[in-house]
Amino acid sequence: MTALSPSLSPPARRLPKPFSWPVLVAGLAIVAVEMTLGAQVSEYYLLLAYIILQYVVLSTGWNILGGYAGYVNFGTAGFFAVGCYTTIALEKLAAVPLPLAILAAGVVAGLIGLGTGYLTLRLRGVFFSIATLALAVVLQTLIVNWSFVGGSRGAYVMRPDAIAPFASYVQYLLVVMTVLAMVAVLAAIAIERSWIGMGLAAIRDDELAAEASGVPGLRLKLLATTLCGAFMGMAGAPFPYFITYVDPPSAFSLAIAVNAIAMPLIGGTATWWGPVLGAVLLGFTQQVLTVTISSAANLLIVGILLVVFVTVAPTGVVGITRAWRGRRA
After folding, report:
1. pLDDT tens profile 299-320
2. Beta carbons of 167 and 207 less than 8 angstroms apart
3. What whole-number distance in Å separates Cα of residue 264 and Cα of residue 267?
4. 142 in any annotated domain
């Protein structure tokens, strides 16, 4: 049985298809609103929207490997930091425009993901997760000792002047992150609907049976690790301009690592919209808690929600919604 092999599978659906149009239209509508109202709203709300969209990209990238293929990646902060420090390195070498820095960060993080896949994808379960966590530790050690990008003391990054027609550089960052979130979500939809998504789902359900049925397991997993690393790296590329000062603790933040895993799990893995929903709900809740209670409560709330969902609703909000629709039908 070779129904899932690239040569005999049906061709992947090309974007945009009817079901992808709402994502594209919604993204363009968000960009239009940001361009129209960006100069009229508080910068805090622009930063809030940026954080949520950043987590949409991170959780969507994580879900390509962790949700579709079932390989839990604990090295999210490492790939995010690679994106941050790629931008810092390029900023020190030359005044590279942000879109090019994002592409460069995606290439560098994707290559690291590919290399990591070659070394670790023969491990399974908790052994693979520990290996990805070790990767983040190794990357942090390298950054701490790399003086060119600031080392342990960190690096300051000055925001450029506002770029026309944007009212401020923060508004420009928000629009860039919105476009990046659209690209990540559309890529996830394309993967989910293609033979690649079918193959990754087969690997997640029963890897030995999938390989026995002709699924090119190693190639698909390497593709997933590459795309996962690339999107998480691209999510981190604008971050230095967002906070203007980056040091290893902020780039390799525990909050980033935990949220990138918690958001897809709470929203629902193995679907493109589960990570998006989780990022919006959890990201907004965290920011409200930061303003009303304390930023220290964020990880506590995330941990509690993660334990509740893993115990009571392991399929996340997506699974709850589907079960509710099934009962009504």
Report:
1. 777 778 888 887 877 778 887 8
2. no
3. 5
4. yes
